[in-house]
Hints:
Strand order of the largest sheet: 1-2
Helix content: over 70%
Shape: globular
Distance between the termini: 11 Å
Strand content: under 5%
Amino acid sequence: MLTRCDGMSVNSSLHSPDGRAARLLAVGGVVGPVAFVVAWVLAGSVTSGYSPVNDAISDLAATHAPARFGMTLGFVAFGAGVIPFGFALRKVQAGPAWMSAVATAAFTFAVAAVPLGGPVRDVIHGTFASLGYLTLVGVPVLASRTFVSRGRPGWVRYSCATAAVAGACLLASALGPMHGLFQRVGLTVGDVWIVVVASQLLAARELF
């Protein structure tokens, strides 16, 4: 560990060649989730009759949706950003969280590749989306194990709270009314965790 002149500690590994690579990869953890949120906000705003409270995000990328191209780009941007973020977690030895991050990105690519638009396709799409939700929730859950071993109680609490809120909202989106709203809250909470952790890695702050 190194100590900066302002008294704050930084992880020396983040200043090694591997650490610099991890910081570069972490950029995806900021760009991907932000692009995804921007895509659903813009696509929803230009789609007549669309309700972000009652309609799912995937409806914006359905086969005949007017904003299909833009929303599909949002899915792809998320996947393309979160995969390198996952490998950044691997490089900083964040435990198995990196695998869940790569998995949620891969399932997001699958969601984009199989848009809503038919009975069989809708089932496949829904399966990929559900797996994407589960693996997104799994990222902070698995990272919290490493935070425990590193003596980071604040990050443990934040990660567990993120997983609990995101998981509850995503479950609510599948079971009850206002599923569009709950889906957005759940995904945003999970995405914010990724952005926050990626930002900390970019700033060479000690986490793992």
